[in-house]
Amino acid sequence: MRKIGSTLLWAAFFVLVPMVALAQTGAHGGDGNSWGYALGAGLAVGLAALGCGIGQGLTAGNTTAGIARNPGAAGAMFTNFILGMVLIESISIYGLVIAFLLQGKI
Hints:
Elements: H1 2-21, H2 34-69, H3 74-103
């Protein structure tokens, strides 16, 4: 039951933060919502890096375990390992591109 409550709380947080970030400015004028773009850019890079770190760690660990169990298949496993690392790293590049696009709006 705690997990459901925690999940709903985080879901509400991630739904409400963009609403606050994109709210119109008050009578004082100016661009008061640029902090939302900066927060989005930071989250884009941070979450992409977190996901890539987890994915690369799992890939490297499983490849090492596979090579330790069957050293004769190291060549084929290494090729798949490198291809997997490249595809995982492309996720962080997408996060970086999104962050640059959001930084351009500040």
